[in-house]
Amino acid sequence: MAIQRPIGTEDLLPDDARFKEHFIHTAYRVFGRYGYAPIETPLFEQTDLFVRGIGTATDVVSKEMFTVVSGGNLTKLVAGEDLPAKSRLSLRPEGTAGVVRAIAQNGLIVPGGAPVKLMYAGPMFRAERPQKGRLREFNQVGVECLGAEDPTVDAEGIIMVMRFFEEMGIPRESMRLLINSMGDENCRPAYRDAVKKYIFAHAEDMCDECLHRAEVNPLRAFDCKKEGCKRVMAGAPLIPDWLCDDCKAHYEQVKALLDAAGIAYVEDPTLVRGLDYYTRTVFEVQVDNGMGSQNAIGGGGRYDKLMEEIGGKPAPGFGFALGLERCKLAIEAAGAQTSVPATLDVYVAAVEDDLRPEAFRFLQQLRDAGLSAEMDHQSRSLKSQLKQANKQGARLAAILGPDELAAGKLHVRDMASHDERDLDLAAVRAYLDACAAGATGTVEGLLG
Ligand code: HAM
Predict the structure, then answer these.
(1) Which of 280, 298, 333 marks a domain boundary?
(2) Looking at ligand 1, which residue's alpha carbon is closest to its atom 5?
(3) For residue 441, what is the domain's CATH number?
(4) Three-class DSSP category at 28
(5) What is the pTM of this model?
(6) Closest residue to atom 20 of ligand 1, CA basis
(7) Phi and psi of 8, rounded to 5°?
(8) Domain containing residue 306
């Protein structure tokens, strides 16, 4: 059998690849309205960045990272040698750590210049068990805003996510926006201890993994799907009762701003998210229709300590990421369009073989003038050429025939209405020449 792609990966065929382009383009257009500028960071980083940023106790770091080993280093590893930190590399499981690193390394936060608002799009890699909506290579669009603690940053970020989803065709009423506050370094440690104590007090009903994790990451037990753990955790202490006054006030302001913007949300005091860097606001958008058990189409929150944790100058942060593949499932389930049809302005057909060189020259002229154009590359009959024009979704067929050319005419057919007429070839060429300077041609312009 021919070699297959690795499990948990996808080939994006032209329709899917066009959807991806449309998704990213729409996200950048919407996020751009809120002041976000694009950034690209490497697909792999030093493993330590993710260990320190995301946290060793998370599944993402402890179980799901793909390690990258260069040829020379592989030989060393096989020989049992240790690699220096800068040679220990991993494919990025998410985008936040890399963007925060890039902000620190490039000194993007300048006095008086904060906040720095950046958006990104691209593939992320997690060695998870593949299932519907859960891949090993998947795509995210996301933003990170560094240098501002104000609740307006959190609120506008959440508003922006909801606007984007609506613009992509997911109805507001089919989405559930969950929010919570995770507290900060003043109030969270006591809360974590309380949850840890509670878990150990109910140890006989909890699964081994939760008990094992309770030492380092007790809050993850809220996400455990096992019945026993779910029953116990239903009675666990909840963070809202433990928030300090500052965190409480911050959370109240975020909610007030969302209320004022007419954004409906559900407060979920058990929403803890799977990455360790969060402080204060966290949120997730879930959809039920069309999804499997992986129903979060996006999520994020505030991370006021991450910059310090990776060795940068302290700077509060907020951001989120949206999963393209899951959004596509949600958009399809909502009955909205996910296929972006291919478009072709003009299909150039030649009535006889002798005219193919002329058709080829005309084709280039159309393209140089900014129109999308195609011709037959397989010496097909005129009938088959017109079938191809239809198949490729051409708006117009330009049919080059010897009699018309001799009379200085170009015969055209509107592929939708089947209207046919002759155009003055000199006028068409003059139009195309004029467009070539700025490549701004249109089918309407061509028709005169
Ligand atoms: P996350 O919740 O891990 O957050 O991922 C964000 C979104 O990526 C999820 O809601 C989901 O739609 C998608 N996603 C995650 N894992 C997979 C997967 N294996 N297959 C398909 N889709 C997936 C983050 O990544 C944070 N960096 C978000 C953030 C930015 N927080 C602050 N700034």
Answers:
(1) 333
(2) 321
(3) 3.40.50.800
(4) helix
(5) 0.92
(6) 134
(7) 80, 10
(8) 14-187+243-333
